[in-house]
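Hello again, I could really use a second opinion on something today. My current little project is about how a certain protein chain folds up. You're getting the sequence in one-letter code plus the fold written as C-alpha cells. Here's the protein in full, and shout if anything looks odd to you:
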Amino acid sequence: MTDGPNPVEQPSSPRSVRRRATFVIVAGVLAIVGALAASYYFAMRPVTLRIAVGPGNSEDLRVVQALAQALNNQQHGQVRLRPVSTDGASASATLFAEGKADLAIIRGDLEVPKNAQAVATLRKNVVVLWVPPAVKVRGKKAAPKITKIAQLAGRRIGVVGRTQANVNLLKVILQQYGVDPTKVEIIQFPANEAADAIRNQKADAYLAAGPVNSKITADAIAASTRDGGTPKFLAIDSAEAIAQNHPAYEASEIPAGTFGGAPDKPEGEVKTISFSHHIVARKGVSESTIAAFTRQLFAIRQTLKSEFPLAAKIETPDTDKDATIPVHPGAAAFVDGEEKTFLDRYSDYIWWGLMALSAMGSAGAWFAGYLKKDERDGNSSQRERLLDMLTAARHSDSAEELDQMQSEADDILRDTLRCFEHGAIEEGSLTAFNIALEQFHNAVADRKTLLTSMPQNLQRASAQFRAAGTA
C-alpha cells in the first residue's frame, strides 16, 4: 500500500477567525474584571496579625487575649489577632525581630528592634522605691534609717519580678546617685512570692515597676506595713536628669494615696521615673492594615475597661519625628485623621484598570473592524458580480444558464445576510443589495418568459449567433 497525498490544510474561515478574536476580547475583559474583583476581595478580607506578648501569667497577656477575642468577634472587622505567648518583653522583642510576629508588646527601656514602629502605648509604668518600717529586735542595735537613695550602699535591695530589665533599671537609678551597683546586694523575687519575702524581711529596701494601679505593687507595699508602721517611699529627685540621659525614661510622680491605707501611702506626691510598654508593628506590615488595627483597638478599649482596667490606659503613640520609637505610618494616619479609604488607597489601580478596559475595548473594536475589512471587500465584489449577472441575464439565451446564475445569486444573498449579522456591512448597504437583487430576479423572470415564448429554432439561431460573435 502507498501513502495517499497529505491533506492540504484549509485556511481558517473569516467566521472562525472572528470567533477566536471575540473569545480573546471577552476573555481579556473577564480577566481584568476578575483581577479587580480579586483585588477588592483581598483588600477587604480580614487580616490576621500575630502579636508576641508575655509572660504567660501577666496582665499584658490577659489584656491582649481579651483584645483578640473582641476583634475576632467583630463581623466586619478588617484585622484579627493571634496572641503568641512568650517568656517576657525581651523574648517578645526577640521573636518580633526574627520576623515570627507582626506585632509585639515591648518595654521602652529595653533594646527596641530596628524594624519596630509604634502603634500604641499599652501602659505607662512607674518605679516605686520604698523602705519597710524598722523592726526592733532585743539585743540588736537598730540599723540606720534609710531616707535617701544614696544611703542604699551596702544594703540588700529586693526587686519584684524576675525580669533582668528591672535590675538594670535599679542600676541606672543607683548610678545616678553615685551608688556603685556592685556594693549592694540585689535579690529578685517572683511577683507571686514578693509579699512573703517582704514579710520575712529578705531585704532592706524594695523596688517594683508597674502601672500606678498595679495590684502586684500594692500587695507588696501592703506586706511592708508592720506594727502600725508605714513604709518610707524614696523619691527619685533626679528623675529629669535620668530622663535626659536615658530617653526611654520620663520624669513622673506617684500621686498621694495611690496605694491606700491610713495614713495614705504615700502621704504626698513622690517624684519618680516612668517608662512605657508599647505595641509595635513591623515596618513591612501594610499601612492600611495597621491603620485599621489602630482604629479597631481604640474603638473597643472602653468596652474592656470594666474587666481589664488596664485596657482603658491604652494611649495613642508619639507622632513626633524625634520620638524614641518612630510611629508606624498607619497608626500616624489614624491619629492625624488622615486614614485612607478604600477608594483613596486603590483609586490609582481602579483608574488604570478602567483605562486598560477602555484600551482593550478600542483595540478590540479596531481588530474586529480589521477582520471585517476582508468580509466587507468580499461582499462588495459579490455585489459587483450580482450587477454583472443582472446584465448577463438580460441577454442570456439559455434557461440553464439563468438557473445557474439564480443559484449563484442565492449564495451571494446568504453571504450578504451573514455579513450583515456580523456587522461587516451597514443597513444602507443591505438596502442597496436588496434593490440589485430584486432587479436581478426581475431580469431573470422576464428573460425566462421571453425564452419560453420564442420558437426553438429561433432560440438556437440566436444562441449560435451569440456564440459566433463571442468567438
Notes: Residues 1-13 have pLDDT under 50 and may be disordered. The chain has two domains: 103-136+145-340, 371-470. Residues 62 and 308 are 8 Å apart (CA to CA). The radius of gyration is 46 Å.
